[in-house]
Please model this.
Amino acid sequence: FNQALEFSADNSMLAFIRFDETEVPQYQFPLFAGEAPRIDVLEDYPGEYAYKYPKAGYSNSKVEVRTFDIKSKVTRTVKLPLDADGYIPRIRFTKDANKLAIMTLNRHQNRFDMYFADPRSTVCKLVLRDESPYYINENVFDNIQFYPENFSFLSDKDGYTHLYWYSMGGNLIKQVTKGNYEVKSFLGYDEADGSLYFISNEESPMQQAVYKIDRKGKKTKLSQKAGMNSALFSPTMKYYINTYTNLDTPAVITLNDNEGKPLKTLVTNDALKQKLAQIALPKKEFFKFKTTEGVELNGWMMKPADFSASKKYPVLMYQYSGPGSQQVLDNFNVSWETYMASLGYIVACVDGRGTGGRGAEFQKNTYLNLGVKEAKDQVETAKYLGTLPYVDKGRIGIWGWSYGGYMTIMSMSEGTPVFKAGVAVAAPTDWRFYDTIYTERFMRTPKENAEGYKAASAFTRANKLHGNLLLVHGMADDNVHFQNCAEYAEHLVQLDKQFDMQVYTNRNHGIYGGNTRQHLYTRLTNFFLKNL
Model:
């Protein structure tokens, strides 16, 4: 989040989070003059960029909440019962100027507490606690909305993320939704008639629809079409803007009333549709399969436009695979993968264990062991695709960016030689190199979970790397540090494993600027054309 500063409802007080970074270790990386943009002062002698970055197991910022009285100019520190190494992910003023909501997490991120603090007396009262045997999902924070008498809360404590409705005193009034599906976001509450609005994937983990539940508990689906729907409501909850898309439909944006009736189409994307109709675009289709461990996985596949079932095609697998993420969704997308399908590849994507949309057990079963089950599922995907009559099982490739890059390396080193080639862009290679909040949420600290970190490291299984690997990284990546690539590359050298590597000067995690993106995707294309 990017704002740790909040005004009270009557604008008389400011509340803010104070961060003390003194004990947080510093990370630095070199900067060169480069081009697009050029840094002239670094022409002869390169410089460096240094900043505070807490890696897994290291010291975080120490945090506290302070309030500032705008009239009297008095600053106070709130008496918050926070662990010495605890987090304050959000502060939010409620509708009551004397109630500041302070959300806290313990360092393991498996206990969420919300306090109401009086900004003047600084006294805190615990109003809500939610605990998980694994971790609390971070989508919880911004789905808490405050009303004069109530607040909303999302929790997966019954196995799926559902909407809960509380009184401002912290008493649970009701669990609003129930079932084997997930509520994705809370959209708002109509104070006039007591209706609650939300988005869920009740119809399918790959789709989202807009729903309303009235005061009596009657549920109505408001969005008209099956696919991905998102909604933006007016402050009175009388109208909303719906953005709809599915595999074959670019975004259509409509203005609707709160019964779901479309009043006006704001964006049709007709010009784009006409343009696409003139191109032989590869089409995406969904598929499912069961792994040898009996887990059913969802995927999409894109075949070349001139596909013939009597031919054998090379396959390019794309995935991200990070905790709670989803790539297999019923939405429209034209990407580099579409381009690769047009060059004669079958492109496939499967969401393995650890991904979202299918409940807490499916998502959180990778807890303390990142990378292991996810890699197994990508290997299983390759094996399944290899059984299809139109697939050349000797020419299967895999690629991904960030977590997807990590998964590419882990899958190519799983011990089953199914991948002929792979590209890992901006990949973490060892979780000890990554930040506290993300890493420890899923892995705890290296001290507490030494075995888990060892199994999750690309270094541990590097001797089993099979297939042609291209490592791509930006040297100024302040998120997944170039250190991940540099140290892993050195390890492969010492193991006498050949690989390709593409380094981008001064580029961050997004690897863009000037001609950089064009160069990157040309490099990827040529690599797969050569190796598949």
